Each structure stands twice: as structure tokens, then as C-alpha cells.
Automatic annotation (TrEMBL):
Matching SUPFAM superfamilies: (Trans)glycosidases, beta-Galactosidase/glucuronidase domain, Galactose mutarotase-like, Galactose-binding domain-like
Keyword Nucleotide-binding attributed: no
GO BP annotations listed: lactose catabolic process
Domain Glycoside hydrolase family 2 immunoglobulin-like beta-sandwich: start-end pairs: 190-287
Catalytic activity reported: Hydrolysis of terminal non-reducing beta-D-galactose residues in beta-D-galactosides
Organism whose genome encodes this protein: Arcticibacter pallidicorallinus
Domain Glycosyl hydrolases family 2 sugar binding: 54-185
Gene Ontology CC annotations of this record: beta-galactosidase complex
Keyword Kinase: no
Protein name: beta-galactosidase
Recorded superkingdom: Bacteria
Protein EC: 3.2.1.23
Enzyme class: hydrolase
Length: 926
């Protein structure tokens, strides 16, 4: 009996092996991405390395590997898109695969692709660069022996409509097998396609299509941790169609959203005569997408405002060949900016990008290619099916886009609806279609008119077109306030995520953005963060904190609004920090931290955030409040100055000393000496002429020169005021109504006080300038908002602190993509310590809201004449009004009220109503 029992167990084990369902097997012929490639033999017909056999990594775009010719979409030269690439690779297929159906799968190839196995065509030439396609090559293979794969790739398509949709476009045009290639081994009886529709109420539908003679399908659902969710559902296949629509209901599923990306796994098993023959797994999410006309877009019953960006599949050194690790980095950067949505521009992405959007949580608009042209109907129908079959089960996809900006084939709209079991909404970007107004780059006034008075759901699929440092964060605060307040607004999508700068293997590996065409990103080509990155992060924070001044009666209460769709603020972490900032003399301060009780506020509710501070909080300089999301990442840190500039100035500026101050006159100068310091002023204009100490001349001079104001300081005289020397102008309402006063203290500190009237009612910039040679500059340390520069219409994203910036000559969106930029406007200056190559000097102000301007950044070429920011003359300026910046498609003033010019009244030159700037200078180098 014992022996019989052992044999029975062994027999049962063998029987179990025999009935286990086969899974789809994969054999890679290429690598998986730009971080994992396989060399194939390669020959290109034109451009670099043409006419000779070599090797090339696959996947890749051949230009980035030193073959062919680089082309941006607007290129019109004779070689554009005419290269053809020939690939060869030998491979073996195991004898174990003899009874399988074997497909060769290409995830993406640019553009027309002809495939041969052992000298025979695998099927018709595939036309279309961005779609997964496959051929059944079972009958063409030799098992257990070498097989020859030959691929001919034509960069330009023989199909005019494919070129119109994909290659006559405003982006880089590449060639080659740029996504993975592999063999797919399937049992003869297998599942060909599964389309899942899982709703927020737990209802579940799956359309299953099978090939072969199988009779039945079963479905089991599993939680993300692998635990079963409900029981198996089984249904018989239709004998004629080989398909079945399976339905079920599941109790209280965890829902998928961008805030809570809960995923499930569906295991589909194909049975033939009760024996399992094939098994596949699909990840999905329970969620409901609903469009309510003249109302909005709803997900799981919550009305959504999309905070989105457009994204190309792109990396500088590999073109459109990316990797899963890059997809993760892209999505994490978007979520770091508090975005909840991304539009695929202007073609479907890599599958791993959609996987990451599913798992980390981003709403996706997936797009059939078509920039300004579109596919013909037969071609578009085929490619559309390839896109939907490949992408349909990703819960992150909540929209389909049929082309872009006129590249819409209307005949394909019904095909979208027929193929998509979920019936997701279809968007025509840039058009008014099916209840969505998506017009691109509307001016603020026109847009707000539509928001307030239109009837459609307003959701621009491109707005605030970035170019260099313009757009994106510049203008977003005005736009978003209007979008948030309008019931008909569903948000929008910025253009675009990253500068598309390619490594030019034909130009010593420089990074080329084709001028202004591709310098559109919020981040640089290698994900360098520009100033707009942080502005967007603050503006799109789902925790909105109303402006609050920290004044004498501060009670620790901040008024907050929950701008999440599903998250209660009691799920968010809050903390505070009080800091004493580093002083101008280099002495660092201390800080203390604490936690804040998270308020119980449901989505869209308003309430109070109470910060319990120690009794000595007034002795600190700044309060920081940080919100942390459910993923433990920072949502944003807000800074609130406690100390005012005048108080900081009183700490720093030392006036009294035992030394005396001496003044003398020449024909043209007042010369003041103290502590080995000599400062010279023009007797006629009061302008600072020279500063010299025992180390030599500090080349800071020729100021103050008023910007957008009359430089009519006149009638200067000097007098002693105790130990101080005072040099000041004389007021005359008609001829010298602007006033300048210098005071030199025994300590060596020099005070400048200017009372002035701006010269124009509307003006871009207002303040005063000095000269300093840029070539003599090492860097600057300053207390204020930083570390990024600001524009009048991009004030968000910085924090009050002490920032040490080395000099750089960076121009945003151009090599070397070094951020933060040194030159430009810096907000809320308290003090600065300016480091020259030979000497340093310090400037301290008593004024709130004073801007420090450091030189004039390069204003990159703008053929549209929209971008141009305005800078004052001189080199170093202290400003009370600065300019905004435009976008590629809009002038500064059309981006909203913050982009408009400054408005000043002259108050009939009443001295009591003049604007005032007070600065203290330390030229002793201490």
C-alpha cells in the first residue's frame, strides 16, 4: 500500500503538469530600451556613414548612432527623409516552440518597415512609425537552426498620408527600429485580445477573443498584493466568432485615480474540453469616466480639473528610444510639479510609459498621430486598431485624441467608438468637438470670455506655449485662477514637458534644439529644472493656502482649501520650521521644527490650518510650512517672512565709529573719505563716480540712474549731520522733483535714499541702475526669494532664504542648460553680498518688495516678437517694477493681468507721494 501510494502521487504530479495552461513566451531579438540594446548589422543609403555595412544598436534611432542625417520637421532640404536603413540579424528558435504560433513583434519602427525571414516576406510593408505591429512567421522559421531576419526601414513613407500625419510636423524626425523587437510564442489555441471595462461600482466586463478550437474562458481577479478578489468567472466562447463578452460584479473595489492608483490583475485562462491551454494576465483599474455636457469631466463621480502637460517620447542621446527608467523619471517629475495629467503628443507612447502612469497615477490623453495632416481612412483605421488593441486596458487613459491641430480624420471617430469597450471621450485637439472646446493658445481675455460665457467644457489641449524661459509658469497663475473658478473649465495641458535637444553626432555632440523650435520645455533635455518647474509646483499644489502676512497679531492660523479630487487633507502631512537665516557677516542662524495637525477637510472644502508655534517665534526670520502627500513626497514648502527688511538692515548696518568723516570738493566732485575708503560723487548730478578702498577701486559706479524716470537730480550741496556727511539734491516741482540723498557714516557704511516719480503712467520697468563690469563678476549671495529669477507674471515657486549663486551666463533653453540662471530679476531682496574677482561689496535695503536685477540675460532669438522681456539699462539694478515675459504664441500682456505693464501715478509731483528706495552700501570688503 505504501508503494502504491507513492506511485499515485507521482502520477498526479505528472497529470498536473500536463494540464497547466501555457503562458505567452517571449524571445527578445533586440534590447528593451536605450539602456539595453543588441547590435545588428546595418547599412544606410544616405547621410553619415552611408553606403557601407556596419553595426547599430537596436532599438535606436540611427541619427543618434552616427548614421543618416538629422532633420527637424520644418526642414526642406533635398535629403530630408530619403534615407533607407537595412538591418540583418540571425537568431535561433528552440525546437520546443515547434507546436506554437510564432509572431515577430515590432513595438515601433520609423517609418515604412519591410520584414523578411529567411529571404521571404513576413507580410505587407507596415506604414506608420508609432504603433506595435506583428507578423505570423511560424511557417517561415527553421527550428533549432539559424534564421535570418532582414528588415528594410524607409524613413519617409510611400504613403503620403503617413508623411502628412507623422513627418510634416513640428518636431525632430528620426529613422530606424527605435522600440523593441521580439518573438512571441503562443499555443495553437490562444487568447488573441482582451478588452476590459471595470467601473467604479464594481461592475466588470471583458470582451475576450480567442483563436483555435478552445471552448471556454475563465477570469480570476487579484489584488495588487496577489490575494484573490472574488471567485472565478467562466463563460463559453461563441463557436463562430471565437469570442465572448464576460460580465461580473465585485463588491467595494479599491478605485483607480491619479491620486490613488489602485491596480488589479485579471488572469484569463482559455480552456479546451475543460483543460487549461493558455493563460494571460492583464493589469487594470476600477474607475468610471463620464462626460456631462455643459458641465465637466468626471472620474469616479468627482469633477476633474486637469493639470496637464504635453510630452514627447524623447531623450537627447537616443531620440525617441527611451526606457522604463526614463518613463519613471518623467512621471515622477510631472507629479513633483503637482500635475495630474499628461497628453501624448503627437503619437502613442512606449507601453512602459503607460504602465508607469497606471502605477504612479496620471490621467492620460492617448493620441493617434497627426500633427496638421492626417492618415487616409484605410491606413488610419489599421493604425488606430493597433493603438487601441495595444493600449486599451490602461486605466490611466481617460481620453483618446484623434490627431492634432487639423490633423483629424473625422471618419475615424466612429472607429474609436467601435473599438473601445469603455467608450472613452474622443478629443480633437484645437477644435470644438463633441462638447469640448480645446482651442490652443487662447489669449487670456478671449479665454476668460469663453470660460465665463460659453456653453462647452473648456479644456485647451495646449496653452502657454513655452519658449526658452517664457510661458509655462509665466502667466499660469492668472490662467489657473480663472480655470479653477470657472465651472465649465476642465483645466488644460501646457506645451511642453522637456526641451527636445538632440545630441548631434555630426557636430561634436553639441545639444541642438533647432533654435527656438524645440526649446519649449519646463525641464531641459536632461531634465534640468527651470524656474517654471517650481512656479507650476506651487500654482498647481492641491493644497491651496491663502496669502497670509506674518504680522504682530499672527495667531498661527492659515486659511486652506482642499483642491484634491479624492484625498482628505487629514491624509496629508503638514510640518513647520522656524529659521534664523545666515547673516551678511556669514554667521549661520539656528532653526526649530514641528508637526502640524492635519485638518479634516474633504475635497473642495475650505478650513483652517493651525500652526502651534513657540512663544519666541518673533525672534526668528522666516516660517516655512510644508505639505507632504500620501506618497511621502513634498507637495510644496511655503515661506513666510517674519522679519522686515528695515529690521534686518538695523541688524547689519553699523553707523557709529570713532573715525571721522571728511569731505572735500573739486570742480566737479564731492569726495568723502572714511576708514581708508574714498567715495566720489558728481556735484552736478549726485551720481556715484568712484569707490576706492585700500585694496583698490571697486568698479561699482554710475548710479543711481533712474529707469523710466527723469534723471533730474540737481542743486546738490553737502552738510554735516553730527559725525555724518550728507549730500543731497534740492527739490523743485518743475525741474528737479526727483530727490537723491547720500549719507556717509563714520563706520564707512554709505546710505542712498532716492525719492522719485516714474516717468510714465504705463511702464515695463521702474527703479534705478548702477554700472559694474560683468567680466569682473564671481557671484552673489543674497537674502530674498530664490534661488530662481522671476518675472512679473511668474512670481511663484521661490522661497525666502539666503542664496549663494556663482556667476553663469546661462540662457534658458540653450546649452549648457545650467540652472538657476545667474542673470535677471530676483525678488524680495533684503541684502546682497556681491563678489567681484578682486573685491566684494554689500548692499542692504529697508524696502519691502525690492527686486535685485543682475545684468541682462541673453534674449534668445524670437521670430514671433512675443517673448521679448524688458530690462533696464546699466548692469546692477534695484527695481520696484519689472517686466513680464511672453510665450512663443502670446505677448506678455495677453497672458493675463500679471503680464500687463506697471501702472504708476505721479500725484502731481507731491513729495509726500513719491516712491522711495533706500539702500546701504558697505565698500570696505568686510
Amino acid at each position: 500500500m505504501k508503494v502504491l501510494h507513492i506511485h499515485f502521487i507521482f502520477f498526479f504530479f505528472l497529470f498536473s503538469l500536463g494540464v497547466n495552461a501555457q503562458t505567452t513566451q517571449k524571445q527578445m531579438l533586440s534590447g528593451t530600451g536605450n539602456d539595453d540594446t543588441v547590435n545588428w548589422d546595418f547599412y544606410v543609403t544616405g547621410g553619415m556613414q552611408a553606403g557601407k555595412w556596419s553595426t547599430i544598436p537596436v532599438p535606436s534611432n540611427w541619427e543618434l548612432q552616427g548614421f543618416g542625417k538629422y532633420d527637424y520637421g520644418f526642414s526642406k532640404d533635398s535629403l530630408r527623409g530619403k534615407e533607407e536603413g537595412f538591418y540583418k540579424r540571425t537568431f535561433k528558435v528552440s525546437n520546443d516552440w515547434k507546436n506554437k504560433k510564432i509572431n515577430i513583434v515590432f513595438e515601433g519602427s520609423m517609418t515604412d518597415t519591410e520584414v523578411k525571414i529567411n529571404g521571404k516576406l513576413a507580410g505587407p510593408v507596415h506604414q506608420g512609425a508609432f504603433y506595435v505591429f506583428r507578423y505570423d512567421i511560424t511557417k517561415l522559421l527553421k527550428f533549432g537552426a539559424d534564421n535570418l531576419l532582414e528588415v528594410k526601414v524607409s524613413e519617409n513613407s510611400a504613403n503620403k498620408s503617413v508623411n502628412a500625419a507623422e513627418r510634416e510636423a513640428d518636431f525632430w524626425l528620426f529613422g530606424g527600429i527605435y522600440r523593441p523587437v521580439y518573438l512571441e510564442g503562443l499555443p495553437k489555441n490562444h487568447i488573441e485580445r482582451v478588452s476590459i471595462d471595470a467601473k467604479a461600482d464594481g461592475s466588470f466586463r471583458a470582451n475576450v477573443i480567442a483563436a483555435g478550437s478552445a471552448t471556454e474562458v475563465g477570469i480570476k481577479l487579484f489584488h495588487a498584493d496577489g490575494k484573490p478578489f472574488g471567485s472565478e468567472i467562466r463563460s463559453n466562447l461563441n463557436k463562430k466568432s471565437g469570442s465572448v463578452l464576460m460580465t461580473g460584479a465585485f463588491q467595494s473595489p479599491k478605485l483607480w485615480s491619479a491620486e490613488f492608483p489602485n491596480l488589479y490583475s485579471a488572469e484569463f485562462t482559455l480552456y479546451q474540453n475543460k483543460q487549461a491551454v493558455h493563460k494571460i494576465n492583464k493589469k487594470f483599474g476600477f474607475r468610471t469616466v463620464e462626460v456631462k455636457p455643459r458641465d465637466g469631466m468626471y472620474i469616479n463621480g468627482a469633477k476633474i480639473k486637469f493639470k496637464g502637460v504635453n510630452r514627447h517620447s524623447f531623450w537627447p542621446s537616443s531620440g525617441r528610444t527611451t526606457s522604463k527608467s526614463l518613463s519613471i523619471k518623467d512621471v515622477l517629475l510631472m507629479k513633483e510639479m503637482n500635475m495630474n495629467a499628461v497628453r501624448m503628443s503627437h503619437y502613442p507612447p512606449d507601453g512602459h510609459f503607460l504602465d508607469v502612469c497606471d502605477s504612479l497615477g496620471l490621467y492620460v490623453m492617448d493620441e493617434l498621430a497627426g500633427w496638421h495632416g492626417h492618415y487616409d481612412t484605410p491606413t488610419g483605421t489599421k493604425l488606430l486598431k493597433e493603438m487601441i488593441v495595444n493600449d486599451e486596458n490602461h486605466p490611466s487613459i481617460v481620453f483618446w485624441a484623434n490627431g492634432n491641430e487639423g490633423g483629424h480624420n473625422m471618419e475615424l471617430d466612429t472607429i474609436f467608438r467601435q473599438l473601445d469597450i469603455q467608450k472613452r471621450p474622443i478629443i480633437h485637439p484645437w477644435q470644438l468637438f463633441d462638447g469640448f472646446e480645446t482651442q490652443h493658445y487662447r489669449e487670456y481675455d478671449y479665454g476668460i470670455g469663453n470660460y465665463m460665457h460659453g456653453r462647452e467644457i473648456v479644456m485647451p489641449t495646449e496653452f502657454l506655449h513655452g519658449m526658452y524661459d517664457g510661458g509655462h509658469g509665466a502667466g499660469l497663475e492668472d490662467y489657473w485662477k480663472a480655470m479653477w473658478d470657472s465651472p465649465l473649465s476642465a483645466g488644460g495641458f501646457l506645451w511642453d514637458f522637456a526641451d527636445q535637444g538632440v545630441v548631434r553626432t555630426d557636430k561634436n555632440n553639441i545639444i541642438d534644439t533647432d533654435g527656438n523650435h524645440a526649446a519649449d520645455g519646463i525641464v531641459g533635455p536632461h531634465h534640468e529644472k527651470e524656474g517654471s518647474f517650481y512656479a507650476i509646483k506651487e500654482i498647481w499644489s492641491p493644497v491651496f493656502i491663502e496669502r497670509r502676512e506674518i504680522a504682530e497679531g499672527f495667531d498661527g492660523v492659515f486659511h486652506v482649501e482642499n483642491r484634491y479630487s479624492f484625498t482628505n487633507l487629514n491624509q496629508i502631512g503638514f510640518s513647520w520650521k522656524l529659521a534664523k537665516l545666515k547673516q551678511i557677516n556669514g554667521v549661520a542662524g539656528d532653526s526649530i521644527k514641528g508637526q502640524i495637525q492635519s485638518p479634516d477637510l474633504k475635497p473642495l472644502e475650505k478650513g483652517a490650518l493651525k500652526v502651534e508655534l513657540p512663544s519666541d517665534w518673533k525672534s526668528y526670520d522666516v516660517l516655512y510650512v510644508t505639505a507632504t502627500g500620501t506618497d511621502k513626497r513634498e507637495i510644496f514648502t511655503w515661506s513666510y517672512p517674519i522679519v522686515r527688511p528695515a529690521h534686518v538692515a538695523s541688524r547689519i548696518v553699523k553707523k557709529d565709529a570713532a573715525n571721522g568723516v571728511k569731505v572735500s570738493e573739486t570742480d566737479s566732485l564731492f569726495q568723502v573719505t572714511v576708514n581708508n575708503l574714498r567715495v566720489s560723487f558728481s556735484k552736478r548730478t549726485g551720481i556715484l563716480r568712484e569707490v576706492k578702498n585700500d585694496k583698490g577701486v571697486i568698479p561699482f559706479n554710475n548710479g543711481p540712474i533712474l529707469q523710466e524716470g527723469e534723471n533730474n537730480f540737481a542743486g546738490f550741496s553737502y552738510r554735516m549731520e553730527g559725525k555724518n556727511v550728507v549730500i543731497e539734491s534740492k527739490f523743485d516741482r518743475k525741474t528737479s522733483y526727483n530727490m537723491l540723498q547720500w549719507t556717509v557714516y563714520p563706520s564707512g557704511w554709505v546710505k542712498m535714499k532716492v525719492n522719485y516719480f516714474p516717468g510714465q503712467y504705463f511702464t515695463s520697468v521702474v527703479g534705478l541702475n548702477f554700472s559694474y563690469p560683468e567680466s569682473n563678476t564671481k557671484g552673489v549671495e543674497y537674502m530674498g526669494a530664490g534661488p530662481y529669477r522671476v518675472w512679473k507674471n511668474r512670481m511663484k515657486g521661490n522661497q525666502i532664504g539666503v542664496w549663494d549663486k556663482e556667476y553663469n551666463n546661462s540662457a534658458t533653453g540653450e546649452p549648457p542648460f545650467q540652472y538657476p540662471e545667474f542673470k535677471g530679476y530676483h525678488a524680495n531682496m533684503y541684502w546682497m553680498n556681491f563678489h567681484g574677482k578682486d573685491q566684494s561689496f554689500a548692499v542692504v535695503t529697508e524696502n519691502e518688495d525690492l527686486y535685485l536685477r543682475l545684468f541682462t540675460p541673453k534674449v534668445s532669438h524670437d521670430p514671433y516678437k512675443n517673448y521679448v522681456p524688458v530690462f533696464p539699462s546699466g548692469d546692477i539694478s534695484f527695481m520696484q517694477g519689472i517686466s513680464g515675459i511672453g510665450t512663443k504664441t502670446q505677448k506678455t500682456e495677453t497672458t493675463g493681468p500679471m503680464g500687463m505693464k506697471n501702472i504708476f501715478y505721479d500725484y502731481e509731483k507731491d513729495p509726500s507721494r513719491a516712491k522711495e528706495i533706500t539702500l546701504y552700501f558697505n565698500f570696505l570688503g568686510k
